[in-house]
Amino acid sequence: MAWTPVLVLIGVLSAVFLFCTRRKRQRNEPPLDKGSIPYLGHALEFGKDAAKFLSQMKEKHGDIFTVCVAGHYVTVLLDSNCYDAVLADTQSLSLTHYSQILMDRIFNLQLSNHDPVSERKRVDQYFKGSNLSRLCSSMQNNLQVFMASANPQNPTEWKKDRLFDFCYSLLFKAGYHTLFSTENNNSAEYTEVYEEFRRFDKILPKLARRSANKDELKVASSARKRLWELLCPDWFFTGTVAQSWMQTYLQHLAEQGMDTQTQRRAMLLQLWVTQGNAGPAAFWMLGFLLTHAEALKAVKEELCSLQHLPLDKREDTPIFNSALKETLRLRAAVLITRDVMQDKMIKLSSGQEYVLRQGDRLCIFPLLSPQMDPQIHYEPEKFKFDRFLNSDGTEKKKFCKEGLQINYGNMPWGAGSNLCPGRHFAVCALKKFVLMILTQFDLELCDCNARMPPVDLNRYGLQLLSDGRKRLRHREVTQVPGPAWSKP
After folding, report:
1. For the chain, what is the domain count?
2. Which H, E and C letters describe the chain, residue by residue?
3. What is the per-residue burial (b if ≥16 Cβ within 10 Å, else e) of 16-34?
4. What Gene Ontology biological process does one annotation of this record name (predicted)?
5. Is 423 annotated among the ligand-binding residues?
6. Domain with 35 in it: what CATH number?
7. Which of 174, 336, 359, 391 is most exposed by smallest CB count within 10 Å?
8. Which domain holds residue 37?
9. Does 105 count as an annotated binding residue?
10. Which of 326, 53, 316, 279 is nearest to 165 (CA)?
11. Angle between helices 116-126 and 245-255 (to 10 degrees)
């Protein structure tokens, strides 16, 4: 009997070893790299710093390779000219399975009757045309209200704050009010939703990777339950108030047969999808501008030339647009993942063909290609506010690699059918926020020699990377002649 546990352990280890060693590269399949640790493979390197690990694999194997990650075989595709054709094949490549796994892990949400096609159509309609104009106008008004409430009582005083917290709090509250709330909400609720969301979001990467400890799981569970209560009060299900985006989505779930509990849980997912990146994006853009004097000067001069126009008419801003694209190029690090439902042949730009094996997982990482590819962007690690401008000041749309034009020079919003449906609203919100800050406030870093902080490696693939170690001081500008950003 004493030998029984030992024999069981030997059996388990043998099974794991056989599982990890039996995989062989078949004809026309991508290069296979199983790593040195049975079963785990490259899981540790991937989890520690995905960008660094995938860069090393790209250097070793090229634009396509398959790696073992904790028992799963993941094929990584880094040829951006192939992305559209690959992602368009929804029959061979499925988004649903892996997304359902993550929804369960992170949000404790199971959408058994989920119809992503129907949901996408509804979202597309909500963020287009007159609906988009209405949302942008509402976002602008809400931003002005929350910025006014954040001002010091004495407009001539400097107020110190953490730049990250300042950006995240204002954009989150304004976005939440625009997309989710009604006249029944109040400022205390906005603050509580934001604080609970931040508690939950800090642990979210560990929930996704199943690496949270007991205490972290307890905090995440507590914040999640409170957010379920706050996001879906009972009166939202009565239909007696005007519809917001929140109620529109609830109606969609009800039509698909989801019960009230599931609807409540789904709203936290929507909150994270719509509000999780706006604040960090604004932080990075303002941070880059404040640490690059030439960029800040160029953006301010462009905005100054539009001062005579109403805020909602200041749309012709190619320099501002380029600076925003450059910010997202450097910091948007989304992993696009699909499950391979059946063997699929793909053709690279070089003309070489490879077979994706059924049961594997496909991963596309635009941060590496095209965003940080030195053959596409000269000195890709540097912030160059005019990178997306032609010599005549117009928008630069054409980028080349090895003499050939590529489909994308930047992919912060995805590609093809994977494009974020709310991207136009997100850009509108970011533009209005940064424009208000630069034209209505004096803004500077407390440490004039400060540099941008490193990225948070734990958030690779999940969200725009963020770090909150910057501080600012800002002062509301009085109505005096001259540029609104002149210092006292």
Report:
1. 1
2. CCCHHHHHHHHHHHHHHHHHHCCCCCCCCCCEECCCCCCCECHHHHHHCHHHHHHHHHHHHCCEEEEEECCEEEEEECCHHHHHHHHCCCCCEECHHHHHHHHHHHHCCCCCCCCHHHHHHHHHHHCCHHHHHHHHHHHHHHHHHHHHHHCCCCCCCCEEEEHHHHHHHHHHHHHHHHHCCCCCCCHHHHHHHHHHHHHHHHHHHHHHHCCCCHHHHHHHHHHHHHHHHHHCCHHHHCCCCCCCHHHHHHHHHHHCCCCHHHHHHHHHHHHHHHHCCHHHHHHHHHHHHHCCHHHHHHHHHHHHCCCCCCHHHCCCCHHHHHHHHHHHHHHCCECEEEEECCCEEEECCCCCEEEECCCCEEEECCHHHHHCCCCCCCCCCCCCCCCCECCCCCECCCEEECCEEECCCCCCCCCHHHCCCCHHHHHHHHHHHHHHHHHHEEEEECCCCCCCCCCCHHHCECCCCCCCCCEEEEEECCCCCCCCCCCC
3. eeeebeeeeeeeebbebbb
4. prostaglandin biosynthetic process
5. no
6. 3.30.43.20
7. 391
8. 23-108+333-366
9. yes
10. 279
11. 160
Q: How far is CA 437 from CA 175, 180, 320, 475, in A?
A: 16, 24, 13, 10
Residue 421 located in a structural domain = no
* CB contact at 8 A, 369 and 375: no
Q: Is residue 359 part of a domain?
A: yes
Is 361 annotated in some ligand binding site? yes
Amino acid at 275: Q
User: Which residues partner with 400 through β-bridges?
Assistant: 405
| Each residue's pLDDT tens digit, 181-235 | 766 567 788 899 999 999 999 999 889 888 899 999 999 999 999 999 888 766 5
Tens of pLDDT, residue by residue over 117-168, are: 777 777 888 888 888 999 999 999 999 988 887 766 666 667 777 888 889 9
Nearest 10 degrees: Cα torsion 165, 150, 246, 221: 40
At 112, list the tokens: 């058994």
Q: Is residue 30 part of a domain?
A: yes
pLDDT greater than 70 at residue 461? no
Q: Within 13 Å and on the Cβ side, how many CA atoms surround 258? A: 24
CA distance 126 to 454: 36
Among candidates 38, 76, 67, which has minimal Cα distance to 368?
76
CB count, 10 Å around CB of 206? 16
Q: What is the pLDDT of residue 154?
A: 64
Measured distance between the N- and C-terminal CA atoms of the chain, rounded to whole angstroms? 83
* Predicted TM-score (pTM) of this structure: 0.86
Whether 434 and 286 have beta carbons less than 8 Å apart is answered as yes
The answer to whether the annotation marks 151 as part of a ligand binding site is no
Q: State both tokens at 478.
A: 């009085």
